[in-house]
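hey so u asked for the seq, here:
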Amino acid sequence: MSFELIQAAAQAVHAKSHARLAVHEEALEGVKIALRAGADGIEHAFDADDEAINLFLKTGATLTPTLTAPYVIVKRGDGILPEWMVKTAYKWAPRHMRALGQYAKAGVKLTLGTDAGSPLNGFNDTALEAQLMVMAGATPAQVIQAATINGAELLHIESEYGHLKVGALANFIVMDQSPLENITAVNLPTVYYKGKLVSETPDRSGELEYPLNKGSLDY
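ran it, structure tokens below
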């Protein structure tokens, strides 16, 4: 889409007090166009350069990298997905990881999402996304903030979500070690929803192995 079209969309969206414009864009030039035009959030951003980083920092826009989306195509797609799709994921996954590392180290505001619903990618891969973000260069603290308060602020629902305080909805997880020291602690947590226990930590003997053991990526 052109700058003018995205800008018009941004103006229409921002006329509503709590609306946000999210732009799904993989290519670098498209990311920059969207940021200049007024996007509040960018999903994917498979590449990075100094100009894109500075635009994120200048505008305060949020990046949701969805590293899981190409990663699981590489790790799970052989013999299941079309060959062209797997080859494309092989091409882009390493660049995607490097780009996220650049954005994270520069201090771009991050949120955590998996692009669930894309091929072989489900909601149960949220913990994998957290680990991939750390592997790419984000700190565990950045990832925890991305998964909680940053997402709530992007959606303008931080009064009730994203942190623990009086009056919030008390959706939280309990882990057996600090994710700030080991991000894989988020893999199998005990989950509370609105202050009530909804799932106990399962038996860890069958814990998933990360990174997954299929494919030839070096992570």
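The first strand starts at residue 22 and ends at 25. Helices lie at 3-14, 28-37, 50-59, 68-76, 83-106, 126-136, 140-147, 149-154.
lmk if thats what u needed
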